[in-house]
Amino acid sequence: MEVHHSLGSSTDWIVMVVYFIVIMGFGSYFSKYNRTTTDFFFGGRRFAWWLIAMSIVATGVGSHSFIKYSAKGFEAGFSSTMTYMNDWFFVPFFIFGWLPIIVYTKIRSIPEYFEKRFSPSTRFLATILLLLYMIGYVGIGFLTMGKAILPLLPPEFTIFGIHFEITLMGLIVVIALIVGVYITYGGQTAVIFTDLIQGFVLIFAGMLVFFLGIDYIGGFGLFWELLPTTWKLPLANFNNPPGFNFVGIFWQDGIAGSVGFLFMNMGLVMRFMATKSVDEGRKAATFNILFMLPLSAIVVGNAGWIGKAISTINPSIVPPDTNPDNIFVVVANVISHPGVFGFVMAALTAALMSTVDTLLNATAAVYINDVHRPAKKWLARKVKSIKEEDKQELFAARIATALFTIMGVLAVIPFSAFPTVYEAHGYFHSTLTPPLVVAIFLGVFWKKFTNAAVIATFVVGVALMVLGMYYPRPLIEVFAHGTAYDPAHPYTYIGALYNLFVCVFVGVITALTRKQQVSLVKKIKSNPNHKSIVSGITFLSGAFFVMIIFNVASLPILMILSILMLIFVVISANYYSKYSEETHTEGLTVWGLAKAKEMFKGSKVNETDGEVIKVNWKLVNSSEDLMCFSQNDMKKMSANPGDLVYISDARKILGGLKSVHSTFGKPHNEDGIVYITQEQIDQGQFVAGKILTAEKEM
Amino acid sequence: MNNFFEVWGSFIYLYLVGGIFFFSGMYIIKKSGALNTKRKSHKFWLKTLYGGFLFFFSIHFLSIIAALYL
Predict the structure, then answer these.
(1) What is the ipTM, given to two decimal places?
(2) Do B52 and A290 touch (CB under 8 A)?
């Protein structure tokens, strides 16, 4: 394969450096909005839908997409857009199921949901899986950034007499240092605002590449003519070739990937947590999937299509054997003038940075919420004031971000062994998402899904997935839809279907046999040696798990061990954890959303529609988190004391940056005035003399 | 490329299997009351959800027609 180096000119480098300084300066400005860990991680739950939607574009599209989909576009044509066009199937589940639950349960991380819905031990397992997933994602981000920037650099250089060879890993370490410093300083608000700018810039840059490319080729008519019919089809061939086929991509990206990205990518989930309300989150998700994803599909894949067309007309300019992971950079260089290429590359690398910084911020959030706080509680440290506590956690969050950056760099090592980022990401998705995806999905939408079932999904599901990796031929072949067996990468994509199946199977079978499990555990408990029996069973299930992971026996034996492990894990889970179908589902599944809303508010929900009003503010001396409006203004908003209120700077352009949530207090008689406290002014960062808008939440 | 299955097989599978997920999602959110069709704002979301499905179906359908005949 052709390897490229030293692409671009000094003008391009100047444009890139200036772009980065501007964008980092812009983001850093918003670090002043980080007063608490809530601000650092969630941006204070205050933003308008459009701000979040653009931020999601930068995060989603930036995530390795330019490199990955251009590579597939170069190899397979328009079907590279497949992954961007199949998220709609899960939108009902997301916007009316998972989204209201994550907001109304006030969870700060996905593992926290697992504790509320199931048990602390489930939270522990979910934390491990989620951290692995997110560190892997960071690794993919770093790998992509390295592959994007490497073609711009010379193979080696000498500075002050010292000779440096530029390697992928060396470059990634430098990138990680820059990203780590930036995110450690800025926090979520900085991420959202830099993403807003980058969202626009990268859509513009991607379309610019498309139009410049079409112009370079000689018009859209010629471009269309140059591509063979198979290249113009929006969906790949059903089950061939093994390296890129519809059915495999559907299960890997359309099902495991889409559900994984929507439901368990903490970076994305935290974006939705930063919206001011559930309805704003729905708007952000819908707008993004309906309008931005089809546009993004063209933006991220077109360099590959253009590259294919140019390679057909003039193979000396874009050789057909160009490394697919380099095609975006190569095409952008061919069709752009100096400076424009720098701008496109700056947009690409900045977009990739968006993804990585989002993920690092989210990983640190998971660490603080699910490792740091529970560990501190466990160690029973002395209780500090909220401010002291927050300061300490903010510091711990910054340290954690730095550590996860290092772990992300280390994760690059296994991923760099794959031929392209697409394959690496595909493998990563199909192996790490299924257990969590299945657990979240069944937990949210099926009341009968129990604690033992979710633990079995995590433990036995993972073990069966590992068996699938060792024995793809007999195990995954059944699910292969006729896809040919490739010994180098056996069932690369369709493996996701097998993985999903085994996790669902284990979860469902365990949930459906709850009665039998309970009576079996009762019998064990009636034995005077019940503690020793269950300890032995738990130890054995651990031993079986290790035996399966290290593939120490033949498939039939390992399958028998899996079945025994399932029985043992289920007995242990039922024995050690207290699980009640009533208390562990109340307000925690889609079937109890009304209750969840009531629990969120703390009293009966007021669903009457009211007006959004404009008010001036007056400072009052109070320590209570209440806001007082006039009686007439309360009537306009259809609000009663005790209802929830959202108040924001009236300038819509701010998208809710200066805003705060509170509760209606006793009304007064000064129309058009809201009485607020110093703490609320500080939280909302309201400016004296600026008008505010107020609306009843519920 | 004239093979019907090669051209349309993926499309049919996408909307058949994907459709099962989508419509079971619609059923669950309606049945559970998460989507309350009596509320005005939820009526908007109901239309948006079905409209979105039709939108993507049309994009894929028309793209295949364009690839084959234009």
Answers:
(1) 0.96
(2) yes
